[in-house]
Specification:
about 475 residues
């Protein structure tokens, strides 16, 4: 199809606006004719010819504008032709219905009112069929009957999973996002921009402007560029009126392209996957991580008062919500914020943090003269999973206070004053997975008896 001029496409985009006028006029004519005949009130039917004339003229206008819109090439040809020819048929029958009502056409053997009803019933039938095919073009071929209790299309069946690592990245994580946010405009029946997300072949084919993804490089993928634009940008996707992708959904698409190399069969356990992605994916599918239990799921916590967050930020902390809407935060105090000269401000800062102790899931207080006394406060952070307190004058006594923070999985203690006595403490921390002890007095020989007993966290002697 040759490219249409911008002016033709501009006019064509008035089709969705105009198309509702003939629907209104023609239904109005049918209702008046029906009620007028039942109640034998001629006054009701006197306006029917005008309604039919207006319906026919606006239907003709809608056909012309619809044809102009079709020149964009965004629509499946078969689906488009169905809508187009039924629209033309509706216009023609509306014209004949008008001629019948003004007595230009008569059939001697059929009473005039009955003839009008017959032609108007045919008109309503054509109107509904035309509207149905138009809806298919706009929303996809399964829009009308998608949730019907009968004749359901057999959907792709995904096998039940026990852990998130078993999930195929595309089938379980990416495809549901595309189906929910993209497929209504990019399907086999309606290919906006020449793009369909219905299957692997269509996705890899890309749009009329070329590929929409670059495997291994999300920043150069057109798909990612568009979903990350400002919502007011003309290239932003999904377009105005459609529900935008959440931050989690964007993160999953980036992960698929960047880490999974846009592979359509690869599983999560074969891809380098951050904890953040695992959290998002686990919550999307309601699954646990391999070898982990309920403690590894994101805890449900109350929303924090924005004023409290502002207080903490003013204390010098950096706060980032781990997953949008989770109310769980990564909190960082930049290195060297506190020195020997102002140690007394630690107490006030920790009191501020205690206000959101249930909401902190990752905490970094490295290189800030944190001492054993301060770790008693941190022991109250029950949902804390990652704690980075390296390069601080911490001893075995302070580490023992962390046992009460039961969910810590990663603990960075390099450059502290701990000794092999802390190895007993590590064994009491049920969910501890990794401990960094570089530049401490702990040696590889010290940990051998603990490793021999099994079920002991990994002790890492390098950064």
């Amino acid at each position: 199809m040759e490219s249409a001029s911008d002016f033709i496409l501009f006019l064509g985009r008035f089709h969705p606006l105009i198309v509702h006028l003939p629907i209104g006029f023609l239904i109005f004519a049918f209702v008046l004719e029906l009620i007028g005949g039942i109640r034998k009130k001629q006054t009701l039917t006197e306006v029917v010819p005008l309604a039919l004339l207006l319906g026919m003229l606006t239907a003709l206008t809608a056909c012309i504008l619809g044809y102009m819109l079709s020149q964009s090439g965004d629509y499946d040809e078969e689906a488009l032709n169905n809508h187009l020819w039924f629209g033309i048929a509706t216009t023609i029958i509306a014209f004949f219905a008008w001629l019948i009502k003004i007595d230009k056409i008569r059939i001697p053997k059929i009473e005039h009112h009955k003839l009008s009803i017959i032609i108007l019933v045919l008109l309503m039938t054509l109107l509904m069929v035309t509207g149905h095919y138009g809806g298919n073009l706009t929303h996809g071929s399964d829009y009308l009957f998608k949730y019907a209790p009968f004749g359901k299309k057999e959907e792709k069946k995904l096998k039940p999973l026990e852990t998130i690592e078993e999930a195929e990245v595309f089938d379980y994580l990416v495809e549901p996002i595309l189906g929910d946010k993209c497929i209504s405009c990019h399907n086999s029946g309606k290919k906006k921009g020449g793009l369909s997300y219905e299957d692997e072949t269509s996705i890899l084919k890309g749009s009329e402007n070329g590929p929409v993804l670059t495997a291994g490089n999300a920043s150069k993928s057109e798909m990612i560029r568009r979903i990350q634009l400002d919502s007011q940008h003309e290239d932003f996707m999904p377009p105005e009126g459609k529900t935008p992708l959440t931050e989690e959904e964007k993160t999953i698409l980036i992960y698929w392209i960047e880490n999974a190399k846009a592979d359509f069969t690869i599983k999560v356990d074969s891809v380098e996957t951050s904890d953040e992605i695992l959290y998002i994916a686990s919550n999307m599918l309601g699954l646990e991580r391999k070898g982990e239990g309920r403690h590894d799921k994101l805890p449900a916590v109350e929303m924090v008062d924005p004023a409290i967050l502002e207080e903490i930020i003013l204390e010098g902390f950096r706060i980032r919500e781990l997953i949008f809407g989770s109310n769980l935060y990564e909190v960082v105090l930049p290195a060297k914020t506190i020195s020997k000269a102002n140690l007394e401000i630690w107490d006030e800062k920790l009191q501020k943090l205690l206000k959101i102790k249930e909401n902190i899931i990752s905490l970094s207080l490295a290189d800030n003269y944190l001492n054993d006394k301060h770790l008693k406060s941190i022991g109250q952070f029950q949902n804390l999973k990652k704690l980075r307190i390296h390069n601080n004058p911490i001893t075995d006594f302070g580490v023992a206070a962390l046992v009460s923070s039961k969910n810590i999985t990663r603990l960075n203690l390099y450059g502290t004053k701990i000794t092999k006595a802390s190895l007993d403490t590590f064994s009491k921390m049920e969910y501890l997975e990794k401990v960094y002890v570089w530049k401490t007095t702990i040696t590889k020989e010290n940990i051998q008896p603990y490793i021999a007993n099994g079920n002991y966290p990994e002790i890492i002697f390098g950064i």
